[in-house]
Amino acid sequence: MTDNNKLSLTIPTEKMLEKLIIEEEQIRMSKEYQDQCTLVKDIPNGWLDVTQKMQIDLIKKHGFVSEMNCDVACNMLRRARYLYPDNKIFTEVPVYVRNNKANAGKYKEGDHVPDVKLFNQCGQEVMLHHLFDDTKPTIIFGGSQT
Question: Residue 2: what pLDDT?
Fold first, then answer.
């Protein structure tokens, strides 16, 4: 393998991630970003696509241009609060961390949950109870890719 064919992995430092997090927050609060999210408000997960594109553009702007470097940097940007739990920037700056409403939920084993509308990965509507199999226990997890 020649040097030209070698893959080079660039890992963002903690300081670089701080800079990226601050810039991402400024973008998320901008009218332009919020308008883009509003345009896709009726598309299931539309805002997630807008956010993913914004993060990729931000990462590439800072030099992580190869697909592998971009993927690694995006992953680290999204996980910075876990990678550096003692860094206040990662726990106080991002809106998606400050406003995280995640919790264990109110339902306990044996409770009946309401039938709600969900969307599969293809954007097709599916009712929650249609996913249940009464012969097997059901465990429900929820999350967000951002």
Answer: 45
